Amino acid sequence: MLAVAKRVVFPEAFGTQLAARPGEKTFMVKVSSLRRMTPDTYDRNIIHIEFDTSDTDLTYEIGDALGVYGFNDAAQVRAFCTQYGLDGEQLVTATRDGQGQTRSVHSWLTHALDLFGRPSKKFYTALADFATDEKEAEKLRWLTTSEGSVEFKDRVADTTTYADLLNEFTSARPSFLYLVDLIAPIKPRHYSIASSAKMHPGSVHLCVVTVEWKNSKGELRMGQCTRFLNSLNIGDEIVVSVKPSVMKLPPLDSQPVIMAGLGTGMAPFRAFIEERAVRKLQGVEVGPMTLYFGSRHRAMEYLYGEELEAYHADGLLSGLQLAFSRDQKAKVYIQHKMREDAELLASQMLNQDGCFYLCGPTWPTGDVKDAMVGAFTKFGNIKAGDANRVIEELKESERYTLEVY
Ligand SMILES: Cc1cc2nc3c(=O)[nH]c(=O)nc-3n(C[C@H](O)[C@H](O)[C@H](O)COP(=O)(O)OP(=O)(O)OC[C@H]3O[C@@H](n4cnc5c(N)ncnc54)[C@H](O)[C@@H]3O)c2cc1C
After folding, report:
1. Domain extents for the chain?
2. Which ranges carry the FAD-binding FR-type domain (predicted)?
3. Across-strand partners of 259?
4. Is the CB of 118 under 6 A from ligand 1?
5. Most buried of the four, 123, 235, 322, 338, by CB within 10 Å?
6. 335, exposed or middle or buried, with CB in 10 Å at 0-12, 13-18, 19+?
7. What integer pLDDT is reported at residue 21 of this predicted model?
8. How far does residue 223's CA lie from ligand 1's centre (Å)?
């Protein structure tokens, strides 16, 4: 058999399941390092992953995000195949993304279809049409009506998946080709790049917190992509893309940079700091950099703590303000640390063309803005109403940037 024919017939064996998706430039990168950053005993699992990009033409700018195409868990897929009565080895050709693809049933469900993702109402309706048990058909249709909306919402809140529905409504047995049509494709997830290409040529780093929860039955569920990333081994190859982001270093090396990051929101700031560290090594005079970093406990989640301390000692990181919210009785958050620095914030933002960045979860956005408004009113001679307008202007001129998720 010709090599190319073998690749189509036995895609798993030849890795063609990793092939690029149409319409997006993708790259195959290799895991070169993966370590857990939080102690094993701690409930939050945060990992640092490095990918070797040296065999690719992948390039990225500071602040870009990496799109990761994650796969489903092979064991979970096998269990589903058994329950649904599918032969995982059977080859199936179907059109996806406008092109014919031949994969085994197992590969379709592991590499292409979001089997453990959230089904839309359309899927419930489509499944009803296949249900041979009238009661099941009725229930599925009812769930899509206004009368069934409370239970539908409960099911969404309980993170019901395509697989859950197919296992619950056992009289609905669409053929596999219909499943390929009805189940949405796995979507890539984005992760802020945590490295500078100048400091780490041929490599790209991520800082990822795994997402886990229990449904109402007490079953452990894991986020599609973070489960995948957490299960990788050194040498594994994965498909990624590069997505430009709003997180850009200011145009001038001399401009002050003020960064506020919570948890994995630290990722792009590690890249910022590394980029400026390289510039400094090259003899360029770089402006002040202040980091406000927040997490729960210093001993558990001081992400890149040793590196940060070294940059602080070196003076590159002119300010390092840490808010470990649960290390003392009173909760301390990044906005509290920013309030302590009100004079510096007003001076760098209003008089020195400074740029402010917030990255991580959405919840501190309002409090952080209030801290900035407080700084402008107290030390910038600006009225509260005007301070809000100044922040809007700073946003317009890309000097007050949020990347929250
Ligand atoms: C620009 C950008 C940068 C980012 N940078 C980082 C970063 O540096 N580090 C980082 O850790 N993360 C980052 N993220 C977040 C990341 O993209 C993912 O959203 C996150 O990792 C969760 O992905 P997942 O596939 O593991 O979880 P998912 O499977 O997408 O699940 C996420 C949530 O969706 C809900 N959900 C899942 N399944 C269902 C269902 N069947 N029905 C209903 N609800 C459901 C659950 O509430 C779950 O908690 C970034 C996001 C963006 C947009």
Report:
1. 3-182, 257-404
2. 24-251
3. 291, 357
4. yes
5. 338
6. buried
7. 59
8. 6
Q: CA-CA distance, 338 to 373, in Å (whole number)? A: 11
The DSSP result for 215-227, as a single string, is -TT--EEE-HHHH
pLDDT mean for each 10 residues of the chain (405 residues): 37 44 85 98 97 97 97 98 98 88 97 97 98 98 98 98 98 97 96 98 98 96 98 98 95 98 98 98 98 97 98 98 96 97 98 98 96 97 93 97 96
pLDDT at site 96: 79
- Decide yes or no: CATH 3.40.50.80 for domain 257-404: yes
Measured N-to-C along each axis, helices 365-379 and 342-351 cross at an angle, to the nearest 10 degrees, of: 80
Please give the distance of CA 288 from its chain centroid, rounded to a whole number: 29
CB of 192 within 6 A of ligand 1: the answer is yes
Domain covering 3-182 in this structure, CATH number: 1.20.990.10
Continuous H helices in 54-133 = 74-84, 105-107, 121-130
Q: Residue with the nearest Cα to atom 14 of ligand 1? A: 191
Q: Is 226 in the pocket of ligand 1 (CB under 6 A)?
A: yes
- Cβ 159 vs Cβ 117: under 8 Å: no
